[in-house]
Hints:
Layout: E1 20-24, H1 29-40, E2 45-50, H2 53-65, E3 69-74, H3 80-94, E4 99-102, H4 118-143, E5 148-153, H5 167-187, E6 192-199, H6 205-209, H7 215-220, H8 230-241, E7 252-255
Parallel strand pairs: 1-2, 1-4, 2-3, 4-5, 5-6, 6-7
Amino acid sequence: xxxxxxxxxxxxxxxxxxxxxxxxxxxxxxxxxxxxxxxxxxxxxxxxxxxxxxxxxxxxxxxxxxxxxxxxxxxxxxxxxxxxxxxxxxxxxxxxxxxxxxxxxxxxxxxxxxxxxxxxxxxxxxxxxxxxxxxxxxxxxxxxxxxxxxxxxxxxxxxxxxxxxxxxxxxxxxxxxxxxxxxxxxxxxxxxxxxxxxxxxxxxxxxxxxxxxxxxxxxxxxxxxxxxxxxxxxxxxxxxxxxxxxxxxxxxxxxxxxxxxx
Length: 262
C-alpha cells in the first residue's frame, strides 16, 4: 500500500469566511471533503446537492457540526429544472451565492469504445458536461452583479487518457475543460472567476468502481508513489475558490501526484 497521507496542520485560514457555498455531488468523496473544508474555513453556509439523500444529509450535518449553516437538497444535476430549483432555494434562503463547486459526475464501466451504447454515451455526457452547462447557466446570473467563484471538477483524463476503456469519460472531461475556459473568458470581466481542478488517481468510490484492482501498482507508477486523497483535492478547490487565487482565471489545477508531468 502507498504511504499514508502526510499530516497537515489543523488550523483554519478562514478562506471562505462569510461566504455562501454550493457543492454538487457533495455527499461523498471529493464533494464531501470540499464541503467539510468549506465549513472549517468559515463559510456562512454550505448547500449540498446530490441524488443520494442519506449521504447528502450526513454531509450537511458534518458542516453544521463545524459551526456552519448547511442543508441538503436532493438534486439531479442532469435535469435543468432541478438545478434551477436548487439555485432558487439557495438564493431564497441566503440571499446570494458566492462560491460553487460543480463536482457531480459519472464514469462508465471500462469497455472498448465499439461496445459502448448510445445510452451510456448519453449518461456520461449528461452527468459530466450537460450538468455543468446547466449549473453555469443558473449560477452565473445568481452571482451577478456582485461576482463570485466557480470551480469545476474536471479530470486528468480530459488532458491525457490514462485509462483504456474509458473513452467517453475522457472525452466528456476534455469538453468540460473547454467549456470552463470559454465561460471563464466571458465572465472574468463581470467579476466571476471560473477555474477547474483536475484530480488524478484519487481514492474515491468512482475510482474504486472503475475496476482498479491493484492500487499499490497504480501508486508505484506515480511520481509521488502514492494515491491521492479527497482532502488533498479539496485543498486545491479551496485555493481556486478563495482570495489566494485572485489572479487565476480559466486555469486547470492538476492535483494528480505528478501524473501529467511524468
